[in-house]
Design brief:
alpha/beta, Elongation Factor Tu (Ef-tu), domain 3, 3 domains, 23% helix, SH3 type barrels, six-stranded antiparallel barrel, 27% strand, 378 residues
Length: 378
């Protein structure tokens, strides 16, 4: 007698966040193919004054659900997004920091209120179309290095990751495109979304000009001399080489980079040097740190912007202080995310940063935030 091996996924209910895009549609199709009981769930978020695409997105999400013959449900989290993501981000920008709204949205909305709502509706798992991988409650980078989104997921707690599935995390984008056509999804040729998550086709600069009372201010050199003008300090991020004008813009003028911001006096400081000179490293104090599992022994790497270069790093002081083994002008308020090989071990929000002129002889002290400018320490 032959026994058919029972599908381990049979009867397991998974709510898939259907955005109307290709990635989430393929995620739902793959999960249904694997035998899960799939429900398509749409998060509606619409904020006044922004080119909301929620209506069009919902139609595409419903078409995908209908094609796959799965139930479709909807939850409106507009008010929560306004309070927990948008307003907080605006306050951070206004004080001169550089927040990460996408990481905040993942923590508060997608894997916060949405996750909890799905569980209340009877879900065993929650799935999204992120390019990342979750295994045994740990987080790993997506296979597609050009699309990897683990950087934005550092704040998701391990206990939630245990019930999260990223169905396309092991795939590369061209494979996902081909699968969308193979599954016959009605949105297979929909282009990737541009602009800001949930806000439509707008840039950070567009949003800041709309929300904040920006005042033009002075651009200073490292000696404190006025050498140009900018549109408003909140629009400038450390490390960028645009968003300001220099008075003496000769053809042979070298690129200048923002190395400091002063929100109180509405000034930015620029330098021809993208990285600090005569410094050996950077000591960073983290706020709201979240470690996904234990911090492993051995070499670690960190990045403080999406797709930024990985920098050799070490963690001290029970996970509240990180040493970058390179001198960097680090934007405060941004996410610092740490990795060991393919595993994302978590991270935190950059509360303060100190440039080191020499390596400390003992474990570095926890640095209390004192300024929105980079401090130099000898």
């Amino acid at each position: 007698m032959f026994w058919r091996k029972e599908n381990p996924h049979k009867g397991k209910k998974v709510f898939v966040g259907l955005s109307g895009g290709v990635d989430s549609g393929v995620s739902a199709a793959l999960l249904k193919q694997e035998g899960y009981d799939v429900v398509g769930a749409f998060i509606r978020i619409a904020l006044p004054g922004y080119p909301c695409s929620a209506g069009e997105d919902k139609v595409d999400a419903m078409r995908v659900a209908a094609h796959l013959r799965i139930p479709f449900v909807e939850i409106d989290l507009s008010e929560a997004y306004q309070k927990r993501v948008f307003d907080i981000s605006m306050r951070e920008f206004e004080r001169g920091a550089t927040p990460n709204p996408d990481a905040l949205c993942n923590r508060e909305i997608k894997f916060g209120l949405f996750y909890e709502w799905c569980m209340e509706q009877g879900a065993d798992f929650v799935a999204t179309g992120h390019y990342a991988q979750a295994k045994d409650g740990l987080l790993f980078a997506g296979k597609d290095t050009n699309k990897d989104q683990s950087y934005f997921l550092w704040a998701v707690p391990r206990e939630k990751l245990s019930n999260v599935i990223f169905p396309i995390g092991h795939l590369e984008k061209p494979q996902v495109r081909r699968l969308s056509k193979k599954f016959g999804l009605p949105n297979f040729d929909r282009p990737d979304s541009q602009g800001l998550c949930f806000l439509g086709d707008v840039t950070i600069s567009d949003m800041l000009h709309q929300e904040l009372s920006l005042i033009p201010g002075d651009v200073l050199n490292e000696a404190g001399e006025v050498i140009g003008r900018h549109e408003g300090a909140p629009t400038c991020t450390l490390g960028q080489r645009h968003g300001f004008t220099l008075f003496d813009q000769a053809p042979d003028t070298k690129p200048h980079y923002v190395i400091a911001k002063d929100a109180e006096f509405n000034t930015i400081t620029v330098s021809e040097h993208k990285f600090p000179q005569e410094s050996v490293g950077t000591e960073i104090s983290l706020a709201d740190a979240n470690w996904i599992g234990t911090i492993p022994e051995g070499p670690l790497a960190a990045r403080y912007r999406y797709r930024g270069a990985l920098i050799s790093a070490m963690v001290h002081a029970e996970g509240t202080t990180v040493i970058l083994k390179e001198a960097q002008y680090v934007p405060l308020g941004q996410s610092l995310v740490l990795y060991q090989h393919e595993r994302c071990i978590g991270g935190g929000i950059i509360g303060s940063a100190t440039l080191l002129q020499s390596w400390p002889s003992s474990s570095p002290k926890q640095m209390a935030p004192q300024s929105l400018s980079m401090r130099r320490s000898s």
